[in-house]
Amino acid sequence: MYKINSGFRWTTTAETEREIFALALAPEDIDSDLQQLEEHRLNNVGQFNHNCEMDSNKKLTKTQSEQELEYLLSNLLKYGVLIASAVVLFGGILYLLHHGYEPAEYQFFRGTPSEFHSPGGIVTAVLSGSRRGIIQLGLLLLIATPILRVIVSLLSFLIRREFIYVIITSIVLASLTYSLVGAYY
Questions:
Q1: Under 8 Å CB-to-CB from 165, ≥6 apart: which residues?
Q2: Which of 24, 69, 93, 141 has the lowest CB atom count within 10 Å?
Q3: What integer pLDDT is reported at residue 154 of this predicted model?
Q4: Strand, coil or helix: what is 46?
Q5: Residues near 176 by beta carbon (within 8 Å), at least 6 away in sequence
Q6: Would you say the C-alpha torsion 164, 166, 167, 168 has a positive or negative sign?
Q7: Cβ(62)–Cβ(51) under 8 Å?
């Protein structure tokens, strides 16, 4: 049946027979309910639970209130970071103008003064004209920006009565508050 030829290739001496069958099936009638559902899917826009729409091209679109909330939160984060950065830059420039010529002393570690250990102390330092206080205020604003975003989201979800998101956002806010308060006590 098989034999080796001089080129070390396996060859067969038997011929194989092949037959191809073609079977045609008659199409069945489409159920009228399925056909109506398919037409409804192609022609109409689907509505989801949270007022999110899907058009016929399967693209999700947001409602007006969702777009406004997204715009508000993005601007809050953007401008919060910009304002915090500007305050830190302003404080840094003032600090370098006043202390930039002093040599750095790395032999002894000097921690942060106690007036910068709380938000109230930072505000008091800024009002007294402390340059380091201005830098610390910018960092405090940077930390407060995402917390403010969570608070705005929580209020928005409360107004829209989306209670599952209220619960989730409340948990996030509680953990942020705990981490901040826990650092002072």
A1: 153, 157
A2: 24
A3: 93
A4: strand
A5: 146, 147, 150
A6: positive
A7: no
**For 6-57, how does the pLDDT look when each residue is reduced to its tens digit (9 = 90+)?**
555 555 555 556 666 666 665 555 556 666 666 666 665 444 444 555 555 5
- Cα separation, 177 vs 154, in Å, equals 14
Q: What is the pLDDT of residue 42?
A: 60
**Cβ 131 vs Cβ 94: under 8 Å:** yes
CA distances, 62 to each of 56, 157, 161, 170 (Å): 15, 15, 17, 24
Q: If you average pLDDT over residues 81-87, what whole number do you get? A: 95
Helix spans in 101-130 (H): 119-127
Alpha carbon distance 49, 19 (integer Å): 56
Residue 60 CA to its chain's centroid (Å): 18
Q: Sort residue 129 into left (φ over 0), alpha (ψ -120 to 50) or beta.
A: left
